């Protein structure tokens, strides 16, 4: 029997706000001492009350807009109770009943639309590190603002699950609401997977594999779960509703908690925060200068940049933003090619964190390539040189000259060099051979001319002149 | 209120208060005294007065705070074992506002642990005794606050009122006790009991003092998003033409002497030309049930943070995380705390939320509407505070329901978020104070304070 998988995904996105969701403490704890970014509110001292960070609300609105979602003018906060040392208050402040972000959709590169059920604002938990007979608690991450994005069960393959997560990641980084650093947990995914016989109108029992933080592990975990469930059903067994943990090293997931063991979170409206009423002005102001989204770039660059190259570039908001600043389709095409072939080559990954060259530098580079003033090799050399801090403000032509890679295109000057080479005794035999029909010796002659010009001659121009002279 | 001047110095006022605090030690009022710090502050104020420098509106006035108000670098106990030891790194907004005006905090006073109770018998440090009869309770939960003012130790005290915790002890000890409109004063830095019901207020000997304290403290606080925009100082007291009496409160469950006191007060008012109207408020009979769902739910939630992980008491008897939580909370909380945690978690649990918490929330909305309608028929309401005067120590300790009944006429005010002011209204034949409460619509705090002045 053929089984159709149905997948729904929950995604936690850490918002890159300056301060935490409910206090004025620094939200960026990267490289900071444990427990150094914690206020009395985050620490849950007695009598401390949460204050809502307006920037987090604006970021949530932008995130919702990126997913084509309705922004609910009225939302509210709730408490989700559980005891664990990563939760100082004994509850998480979330939006269980009335979330800020309503329905919307995300369109995958292949055109599939995945509907968004809702997304809500909430505070993150702290981090525990376990040792053999003790555990350490770091509360730096407590109440970092998160939005949890809940998809509808519209996904039916592991590849689409991966593409959906990747597209979410792009939307969040393009909208500039998250740093999108997956390795450090800026975005974390829970995948809900069930399978049902083809043609069945009922969904199967689902499992939830939690806390995935790479696109590859999402794809693998979904594939694994589809296979595991298929095997069980084919053996006549039933599937247990449970949460599972993924082990990337073994490529397997193991059960964590069954439905019966599920916690009762005792949700309750948060009485310390008044309902969140957003005026139209507030929402509009939050969306001012909203950046272009991947779909906008696809529309703009299709026909100019090959689709597969474009998808690679779309992993880097700054690259496509830069391309959009360039003056002509041919410049976009040439620079896109350089971005993809040079900048995204593994050995140059470190350059991605640097400032990109200016649009003027790149436009000029494209023009020089167009005019054959630079060979493709020379172009790459100039391009890399742009990232040298000392070259930031230098004109492209100047850099090319310093590198000595500007090609000689002046026909008069080239002819003089060709004549000089043809007059040399060591080229006489080759000239004879060419005239006798041995076409390939032209390569040797071009080489001689290039040598004479110290590499600055344009080889195709040289060949043309040679053929004319020897005809 | 007696403030310091050239002749009566702050040091004299503070010394006087400290002396009385010592003298009335057997009433078990104070959980801590800040003798040195208070005298130091007093000396500073005296210095300013001597130099002719400006001083605040409460210059040199000694006061005490209920021991659920945090004060920087001092111990806050909330009269609970589980907070021991807890030293606050910040000062609550209300105490800060008072100190800024020159008031001098001489110490903190006793309460039912985490403000759970109506007698101050639930304190880890033992009960505070009634100012008029040492064999009777002070009322609660702000028992220490009421008795400290009744015995004239300090000019005023702070208190918190979640379901009557200011008004009932005020009435038991013959002083004024104001529960302001919800959100009029800041809750920042005060140990939360039930966030949607908690209001911080004051005990004084006169309504005029309450007016002054409200002008100082009733302000929007950005640290408490549930505070209202400033309204008190700008508001005007409404002249009272009609006073409402709640028929539903006039029944046999209320002590005859209290009913008589209320009737006598009404006769007085009539003579002043004020109309008395009887109010039918059928929803009120559900108030106690609604309160004992919403309040424990919020209590259970707010007490979740006391887990022995980061501060306060931690049980020695634990070898794993679950036991650490369980034993810490079992050994650290008082019986009444645990009772409310259990009720609260029950009404919030999956499958019961709709039947209990949600239904109670809906009933609360009906109550709010009922009060709104009542205030269309009258300017203020006059009602008893509790069904009886101060009861004997130990009398209701083992009967939680009888103890909860103490709140029957006070909790609806918290559910509705309206202000209530307990005023002294004579004494019983045996000499115990009787209190009545003046209730008004939201933001009518000044009206009820001025009315209390008029009918004194």
Description:
The complex is a heterodimer of chains A (471) and B (456). Chain A has 471 residues and is α+β, with helices and mostly antiparallel strands. Chain A has three domains: 3-284, no CATH class; 294-403, no CATH class; 411-470, Orthogonal Bundle (Arc Repressor Mutant, subunit A). Chain A has 15 helices and 15 strands. In chain A, helix 3 (215-234) links the parallel strand 11 and strand 12 (242-247). Chain B is α/β, with parallel strands linked by helices and 456 residues long. Chain B has a domain at 10-217: Alpha-Beta Complex (Amidase signature (AS) enzymes). An eleven-stranded mixed β-sheet of chain B has the order 1-3-2-4-6-5-10-11-9-7-8, with helices on both faces. In chain B, helix 8 crosses helix 10. The relative contact order of chain B is 0.14. The mean pLDDT of chain B is 97. At the A-B interface, strand 14 of A face helix 8 of B.
What's the layout of helices and strands?
The complex is a heterodimer of chains A (471) and B (456).
Chain A: E1 3-14, H1 54-66, E2 74-75, E3 78-81, E4 91-94, E5 104-107, E6 113-123, E7 127-130, E8 135-138, E9 145-151, H2 158-174, E10 187-197, E11 207-212, H3 215-234, E12 242-247, E13 252-258, E14 268-269, E15 276-277, H4 280-286, H5 294-301, H6 307-313, H7 317-325, H8 329-343, H9 359-370, H10 376-385, H11 396-403, H12 411-422, H13 428-435, H14 442-452, H15 459-470
Parallel strand pairs in A: 11-12
Antiparallel strand pairs in A: 1-9, 1-10, 2-15, 3-4, 3-14, 5-6, 6-9, 7-8, 10-11, 12-13
Helix pairs in contact in A: 1-4, 2-3, 6-8, 7-8, 8-9, 9-10, 10-11, 12-14, 12-15, 14-15
Chain B: H1 10-23, E1 30-33, H2 35-50, E2 62-66, H3 93-100, E3 104-109, H4 143-150, E4 156-161, H5 167-173, E5 176-179, E6 199-204, H6 207-217, E7 242-246, H7 256-271, E8 275-279, H8 287-302, H9 321-332, H10 335-348, H11 354-377, E9 380-384, H12 400-405, H13 411-416, E10 420-427, E11 433-439, H14 445-454
Parallel strand pairs in B: 2-3, 2-4, 7-8, 7-9
Antiparallel strand pairs in B: 1-3, 4-6, 5-6, 5-10, 9-11, 10-11
Helix pairs in contact in B: 1-2, 4-5, 6-14, 8-10, 8-11
């Amino acid at each position: 029997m053929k089984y159709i998988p149905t997948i729904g995904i929950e995604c936690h996105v850490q918002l890159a706000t300056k301060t935490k969701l409910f206090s004025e403490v620094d939200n960026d704890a990267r490289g900071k001492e444990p427990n150094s970014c914690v206020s009395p509110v985050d620490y849950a001292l007695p009598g401390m009350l949460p204050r809502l960070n307006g920037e987090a609300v604006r970021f949530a609105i932008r995130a919702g807009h990126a997913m084509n979602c309705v922004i609910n003018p009225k939302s509210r906060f709730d408490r989700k109770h559980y005891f664990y040392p990563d939760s100082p208050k004994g509850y998480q402040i979330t939006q269980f009943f009335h979330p800020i972000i309503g329905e919307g959709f995300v369109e995958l590169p292949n055109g599939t639309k995945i509907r968004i059920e809702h997304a809500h604002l909430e505070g993150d938990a702290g981090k525990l590190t376990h040792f053999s007979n003790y555990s350490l608690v770091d509360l730096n991450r407590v109440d970092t603002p998160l939005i949890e994005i809940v998809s509808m069960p519209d996904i039916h393959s592991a590849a689409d699950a991966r593409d959906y997560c990747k597209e979410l990641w792009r939307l969040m980084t393009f909208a500039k609401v998250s740093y999108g650093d997956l390795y450090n947990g800026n975005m974390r995914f829970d995948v809900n997977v069930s399978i049902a016989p083809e043609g069945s109108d009922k969904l199967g029992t689902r499992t939830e594999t939690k806390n995935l933080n790479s696109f590859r592990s999402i794809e693998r975990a979904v594939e694994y779960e589809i296979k595991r469930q298929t095997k069980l059903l084919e053996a006549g067994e039933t599937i247990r509703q449970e949460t599972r943990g993924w082990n990337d090293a073994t490529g397997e997931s193991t059960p964590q908690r069954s439905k019966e063991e599920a916690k009762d979170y005792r949700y309750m409206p948060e009485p310390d925060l008044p309902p969140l009423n957003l005026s139209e002005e507030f929402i509009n102001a939050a969306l001012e200068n909203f950046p272009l989204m991947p779909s906008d770039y696809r529309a703009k660059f299709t026909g100019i940049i090959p689709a597969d190259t474009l998808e690679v570039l779309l992993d880097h908001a700054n690259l496509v933003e830069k391309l959009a600043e360039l003056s002509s389709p041919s410049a976009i095409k040439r620079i896109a090619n350089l971005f993809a072939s040079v900048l995204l080559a593994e050995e140059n990954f470190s350059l991605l964190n640097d400032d990109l060259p200016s649009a003027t530098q790149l436009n000029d580079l494209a023009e020089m390539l167009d005019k054959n003033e630079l060979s493709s090799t020379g172009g790459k050399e100039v391009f890399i040189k742009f990232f040298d801090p000392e070259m930031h403000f230098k004109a492209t032509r100047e850099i090319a000259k310093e590198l000595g890679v500007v090609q000689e295109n002046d026909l008069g000057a080239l002819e003089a060099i060709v004549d000089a080479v043809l007059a040399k005794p060591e080229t006489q035999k080759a000239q004879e051979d060419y005239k006798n029909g041995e076409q390939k010796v032209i390569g040797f002659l071009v080489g001689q001319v290039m040598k004479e010009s110290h590499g600055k001659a344009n080889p195709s121009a040289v060949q043309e002149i040679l053929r004319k002279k020897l005809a | 209120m007696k403030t310091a001047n050239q002749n009566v110095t702050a040091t004299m006022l503070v010394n006087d208060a400290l002396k009385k605090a010592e003298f009335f030690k057997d009433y078990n009022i104070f959980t801590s005294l800040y003798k040195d710090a208070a005298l130091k502050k007093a000396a500073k104020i005296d210095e300013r007065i001597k130099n002719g420098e400006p001083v605040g509106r409460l210059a040199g006035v000694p006061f005490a705070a209920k021991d659920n108000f945090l004060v920087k670098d001092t111990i806050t106990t909330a009269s609970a074992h589980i907070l021991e030891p807890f030293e606050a790194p910040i000062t609550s907004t209300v105490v800060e506002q008072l100190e800024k005006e020159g008031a001098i905090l001489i110490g903190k006073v006793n309460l039912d642990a985490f403000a759970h109770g109506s007698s101050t018998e639930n304190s880890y440090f033992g009960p505070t005794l009634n100012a008029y009869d040492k064999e009777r309770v002070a009322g609660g939960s702000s028992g220490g606050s009421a008795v400290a003012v009744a015995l004239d130790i300090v000019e005023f005290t702070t208190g918190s009122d979640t379901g009557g915790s200011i008004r009932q002890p005020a009435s038991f000890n013959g002083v004024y006790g104001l529960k302001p409109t919800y959100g009029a004063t800041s809750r920042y830095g005060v140990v939360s009991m039930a966030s949607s019901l908690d209001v911080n207020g004051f005990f004084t000997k006169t309504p005029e003092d309450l007016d002054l304290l409200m002008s100082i403290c009733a302000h929007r606080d950005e640290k408490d998003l549930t505070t209202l925009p400033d309204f008190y100082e700008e508001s005007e007291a409404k002249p009272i033409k009609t006073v409402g009496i709640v028929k539903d409160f006039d029944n046999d469950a209320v002590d005859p002497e209290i009913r008589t006191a209320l009737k006598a007060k009404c006769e007085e008012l009539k003579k002043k030309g004020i109309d008395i109207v009887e109010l039918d408020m059928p929803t009120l009979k559900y108030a106690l049930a609604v309160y004992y769902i919403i309040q424990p739910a919020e209590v259970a939630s707010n007490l979740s943070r006391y887990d022995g992980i980061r501060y306060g008491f931690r049980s020695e008897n634990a070898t794993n995380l679950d036991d650490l939580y369980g034993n810490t909370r079992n050994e650290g909380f008082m019986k009444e705390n645990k009772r409310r945690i259990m009720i609260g978690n029950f009404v919030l649990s999956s499958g019961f939320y709709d039947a209990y918490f949600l239904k109670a929330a809906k009933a609360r909305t009906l109550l709010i509407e009922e009060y709104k309608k009542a205030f269309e028929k009258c300017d203020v309401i006059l009602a008893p505070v509790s069904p009886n005067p101060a009861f004997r120590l130990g009398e209701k300790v083992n009967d939680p329901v009888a103890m909860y009944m103490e709140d029957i006429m006070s909790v609806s005010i918290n559910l509705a978020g309206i202000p209530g002011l307990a005023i002294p209204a004579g004494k019983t034949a045996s000499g115990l104070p009787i209190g009545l409460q003046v209730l008004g619509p939201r933001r009518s705090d000044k009206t009820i304070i001025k009315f209390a002045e008029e009918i004194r």
